[in-house]
Amino acid sequence: MLVGYGAIALLLLLIVVVLERSKRANHDFSDYAVAGRSFGSWYQTMSFLNTWLPGSIFISFTGLAAGSGVLGFYYLPYSLLAVVLMFFMAQRVHDWGRRFDLRTQADFLGLRFGSRHVRTVAAVIGIVASFPWLVLGLQSLGLVFSYLSFGRVPANAAILIGIGFLALRQIWTVRMGMRGVVVSDMVQGLVAYVLGLCVILGLLVWLLTNGHTLDRLPGTFFSLPGPGSETGPLYLMSIVLTGALGGWCWPDIFVRLFTARSAAVIKRSAVQIAPYVLVFATALSLLGMLASTVPGVSAAPDHVWFITAGVGGTVLVALAGVIVLAATMGNVDANMQACGALITNDVLPRRTDGRPDDGRETAAAKTAVIVLTVLAAAAAAATSNSQGLASLAIISYQGICQLAPALFLGIFWRRGTATGAIAAMLTGFAVAAVLQAVYETSIPWLGGLTSGVAGLIVNTAVYVGIAFLGPRSQDEEARIAALFDDVAGVTRAETLPTQ
């Protein structure tokens, strides 16, 4: 227990030292929310990885590979597709963000459609969909603290310890804002994904040299859902599509496009991310498959990471726990910060008098992060098991991707109206939520489509239909032309009229 918890204490100490040495005063709320748009490509790369690949990839995703085989690789193609989208989104999103002082994803949509109502609807969907993941992030630490106690701390007590640890960690997130998140992502990313990859490769060598080879796996491990399968032939396509499109709908991921110092930095970061994700995700999923023959894994696939690390004794288990912890902290920190900014910037009334920020917005954002931390901690502590929350998180993922038509069509297509965006987001979210409640995995009469993809079909039809059929004034046509053509003289006040 001393070794396990001591390793956690050392990681926290390292992060705190780095944060304190890099601490800078936030000049205004924009500086607090997007870190002054000042970071280079390697910071952007680690920040993306530490948000995109949470601690659950070592638990749930690797557990899926250990229990189902190659299906566990599904997050690899959707991650690579998301990086491709990142490359093509970079220029417009960053340029609009810098020019019009955009702080959040909802702020971006509000600018694109010239509507405060669009901004508020997008923010509420983002916060509602993100909250279950905050709770699950806190709960997942229970497994880490349980394993690193080496049996001395009960599961429920371990969850409480994990909650307390992350609550303590939020002190620096609250104080430093997005700058603190990005700087700590560099430290946590090096631990989770660089040191983590070294451990993964070492465990793969051990597995392969000790008889845990692919030829020992059942044939079902090498098959994917297709015609005649229980989930349906379109299921795999659905979960990959939902992951790729939904990934950039998460507020904490999207804001990464605002923290870079230029669009070129974002594109360079995308080029760096792609090969690393390819190697890392492939190695970790392969580890899950090979380790399925390790005693104890088949009974508890989600524990495969720690069970396999057990071959190296106490030190390796402690290292495995620290790696999961570092990945989890990055995801929860980014989620908390992004949701706090959404509440302050896009849900609460915002000053429109043009006066400089006097600190009230920053104070409101800090308060929002504190409140979210308390609520998520209370929900995690009150839930003895994560089954219900896991189902809710699945529903939330199907829901968050309903921002995709308004977001992506809004970026790459000039047509589309505020009315269409609001109607599309709300109808898509409602359809996805209802179908998810009825069909937990896939929808048989739609060939295995998930609720999220079914919602996206309705969502896109509504958006495109209103775009072609709904009226758009000459002033709106001129505003969109100026926005897309980057005509000089367009101001934030001119592009965000009050409705």
Question: Care to give the gist of this entry?
Answer:
The chain is mainly α. It is built from 21 helices and no strands.
Write a structural description:
- Mean pLDDT is 85; it is low at 487-499.
- Helix 8 packs across helix 15 (360-382) and helix 18 packs antiparallel against helix 19 (451-469).
- The chain has helices at 2-21, 29-34, 41-52, 56-68, 75-99, 105-113, 116-147, 155-209, 235-247, 251-254, 256-259, 263-290, 304-309, 313-347, 360-382, 387-400, 404-412, 418-438, 451-469, 474-485, 492-495.
- It is an all-alpha fold and 499 residues long.
Task: Detail the topology: elements first, then pairings.
Blueprint: H1 2-21, H2 29-34, H3 41-52, H4 56-68, H5 75-99, H6 105-113, H7 116-147, H8 155-209, H9 235-247, H10 251-254, H11 256-259, H12 263-290, H13 304-309, H14 313-347, H15 360-382, H16 387-400, H17 404-412, H18 418-438, H19 451-469, H20 474-485, H21 492-495
